[in-house]
Amino acid sequence: MSELMERLSQGPLICAEGYLFELERRGYLQAGGFVPEVVLDHPEKVAELHREFVHAGSDVVEAFTYYAHREKLRLIGKEEQLEEINRAALGIAKDVAAETGALVAGNVCNTNVWTGDESRDSVRAMFEEQVGWAADAGVDFVIAETISWLGEALAATDVIRETGLPAVVTVTAHGDPDMRDGFTPAEACKRLEDAGADVVGLNCSRGPATLLPLLEQVCEVVSVPVAGLPVPYRTTEAQPSFQSLEDPHASELPAGRAFPTALDPFTCNRYEIAEFTRAAEALGVSYFGVCCGAAPHHIRAMAEALGRTPPASRYSADMSKHAYLGTDESLKTEYQDYAERL
What we know:
Elements: H1 3-10, E1 13-14, H2 19-25, H3 38-41, H4 43-56, E2 60-62, H5 70-75, H6 82-100, E3 103-109, H7 120-137, E4 141-147, H8 150-162, E5 167-171, H9 185-194, E6 199-203, H10 208-221, E7 226-229, H11 270-283, E8 285-288, H12 296-305, H13 333-336
Parallel strand pairs: 1-8, 2-3, 3-4, 4-5, 5-6, 6-7, 7-8
């Protein structure tokens, strides 16, 4: 049994994601292209974020190779850096995993060039490059994620399985929940399980409220562990994906959308992430995480909702000492009485 499956047999596992959005917010990555050149330009910032996520409760360090594929690098004219970026990201992740005792995962993602069987060979070649470098680095498993075509997800699964490494494969449901080749998320996950994926599920695009119903359907039809990694945004039935969120209070938005750089007003708080975690665990989800938009406090909330006390829990909120809102007997009543007027 692989270490991944051994860990899952003992209880839920957390894999923090969201590097693209968080490093963009910190000023080290450009929105739009979202190419992770930061692994070369500022490797210390990537390592720092890995450490923060493990400190908050992540069991896995996921190499930041999301969108480090040939198509994305072609778009910015830097295909020659393809291998350098991938190997650098894998090295950073391996180092932090060794420091912290976490598992380390390779990563491939949506290529944005899959259109059907006619594109299979070119897409497989892109996956083979990245998965090959991940295998060379000695990762514990490989994640294929954020894929909205079942055919593309099956191609990724096949490439990963050929290395002998465990495959965690998560598809993405957008405003239209079905895969772009017509399968429901549950049907897609069942097909991925049948193809040999060790963990299947859903990630990205949908927030907790609109991802949970789809996760329930997946849990009903598969027998392998199920993954649930929402984006931390308040999506609704009317606006089910974070790409579809509309902000009536914003006067200027790029392309008229809050996505991807004006999503701040929709951000879930830590308590909402904890609520999602408990609800998803009750459905049968055992592989957890938070996708684009995640910050360490979201991961800590997830870990604590699963009954854990990661190192970051030392600093979990304790309002008992707050001058206005606290309950400590030594606090001044003049401040506590004023609380309702704050």
